[in-house]
């Protein structure tokens, strides 16, 4: 069982990783110098994939930042819908989750 300080350190480390990833994505998106039409088409496809990865990283950042807020206010590990404890196994896999397993399914259907 991880302590709250261990969970916080894990979340902060993941946020740092995501920031580095986003910086790398931004560098890649700004690094185009080709003037060839075929190369531009390939770069555009790559850019779309990078943009999707960036959006996914930003979503995860928001989830993790909200988890840090819940740590600060003492509600981390409690489901935001029912207030029940989120299982340790679930928090190990998804440290930023605000939902217990039952309510995660309900949130996905929305």
UniProtKB/TrEMBL annotation:
Transmembrane segments in this chain: where?
none
Note whether Zinc-finger occurs among the keywords: yes
Give the InterPro entries listed for this entry.
DksA-like_N (IPR048487), Znf_DskA_TraR (IPR000962)
PROSITE patterns, from UniProt? Answer: ZF_DKSA_2 (PS51128)
Residues folding into a coiled coil are 1-35
**What keyword terms does UniProt attach to this protein?**
Coiled coil, Metal-binding, Zinc, Zinc-finger
GO molecular function per UniProt: zinc ion binding
Residue ranges covered by zinc fingers (dksA C4-type):
79-103
**Record-annotated Zinc finger DksA/TraR C4-type domain positions:** 74-101
Which residues does the UniProt record annotate as the domain DnaK suppressor protein-like N-terminal? 9-71
Name the UniProt record assigns to this protein: Transcriptional regulator, TraR/DksA family
Q: What is the native source organism of this protein?
A: Phaeovulum vinaykumarii
């Amino acid at each position: 069982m991880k302590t709250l300080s261990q969970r916080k350190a894990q979340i902060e480390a993941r946020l740092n990783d995501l920031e580095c990833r986003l910086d790398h994505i931004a560098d890649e998106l700004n690094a185009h110098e080709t003037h060839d039409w075929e190369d531009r088409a390939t770069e555009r496809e790559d850019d779309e994939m990078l943009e999707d990865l960036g959006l996914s990283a930003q979503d995860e950042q928001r989830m993790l930042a909200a988890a840090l807020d819940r740590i600060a206010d003492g509600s981390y590990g409690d489901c935001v819908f029912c207030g029940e404890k989120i299982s340790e196994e679930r928090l190990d896999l998804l440290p930023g989750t605000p939902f217990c397993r039952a309510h995660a399914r309900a949130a996905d259907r929305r």
